[in-house]
Protein: Ferredoxin--NADP reductase
Organism: Rummeliibacillus stabekisii
Amino acid sequence: MDLYDVTIVGGGPAGLYSAFYSGMRDLKTKIIEFHPQLGGKVNIFLEKMLWDVGGQQPIQGEAFLKNLIQQAMTFEPTLCLNSKVKWIEKKDDIFTIMTDSGEKHYSKTVIIAIGGGIFQPIKLEIDGAEKYEMTNLHYTINGMERFRNKELLISGGGNAAIDWACELLPIAKKLTVIYRSDDLKAHESQVKKLKDHGVDILLNTEIQTLNANAQKTAIETVDIMKNGEIQTIMMDDILICHGYNHEVSLDFENKIAPKRNDNQLFESIGQCKTTTPGIFAVGDIVSYEDKVYLLVGTFNDAVLAVNSVKKYIEPEANSYAMVSSHNEKFHEKNQQLLAEIHT
Ligand SMILES: Cc1cc2nc3c(=O)[nH]c(=O)nc-3n(C[C@H](O)[C@H](O)[C@H](O)COP(=O)(O)OP(=O)(O)OC[C@H]3O[C@@H](n4cnc5c(N)ncnc54)[C@H](O)[C@@H]3O)c2cc1C
């Protein structure tokens, strides 16, 4: 049996920083993540600027994520991607963590870092739509330059749709926003910005049909229904912002099921310990008084949880890791880095 000290379920910011900190505390660590890529919800705002991460100059989501992943890999945790954890049970002091493919992972402790659960964009319910995801049907934006001088149809009326429309104003040739309801739900000032720029905003409007080009490789026109009437719109690309589904499907053997509140968040009894000894929770999935549901909050949780893990496994251990500036682990690397700085 390949036994780990700690298995982290979820590879978002909370899970990633937990993995780094586990390395600081000499714990044999594994991360299990549902998606093929790490980063959790940061993947849905890769293009946006982040201003509120301590010690960081304003930084784009993508660059922030790259740094976060690089830091998480410092102590080379084992990574299992494309794996959804379905069930956790415990026997003889060892947790068995099972994925939906039937794989079993064994661990002395578990850190739950599943955020709001598995995030998936709500997709268009139109037969065959998925084949255009390879070309000009998008559910998120991974590079705005792609839309330079393009005609773009955005479907959605919430903050995500309208924020993207505002960001694309100086880049796209033409923007059309359609929304099924009779009023946009996004922040007033952003809506005003679109209106001031003369963006076409069609309310009470929904996509009916996607019409392919002659090669059947991309969408050429879209039929929309506005107040019961069909219109055809020409566009280069379509962005769908209809929100996200979150699936929180993780379950536990009855005798070890940690207490969760009405919102399914794990209740911390202090230091990110759940009500079940050996199971800890961090990031957006944990609840305690004064919890901060931001990136900075995830880092704080990770330190608390990993220190709790260390004490659970080795009750004699120090409560905290030695600060990094004095930590022997970094001694050699520091010499290299300082030499690079001084040359
Ligand atoms: C649009 C948007 C903008 C934001 N902007 C900011 C900002 O500017 N500043 C800021 O500080 N915060 C911001 N936040 C909040 C920040 O993104 C979250 O606080 C942070 O991502 C929480 O990290 P997490 O690791 O707890 O959860 P998540 O980021 O949700 O990561 C959880 C991970 O767990 C995985 N997972 C879930 N269930 C399972 C399972 N059963 N098996 C395996 N893996 C599983 C998921 O796939 C996911 O990768 C923003 C959030 C959103 C949605």
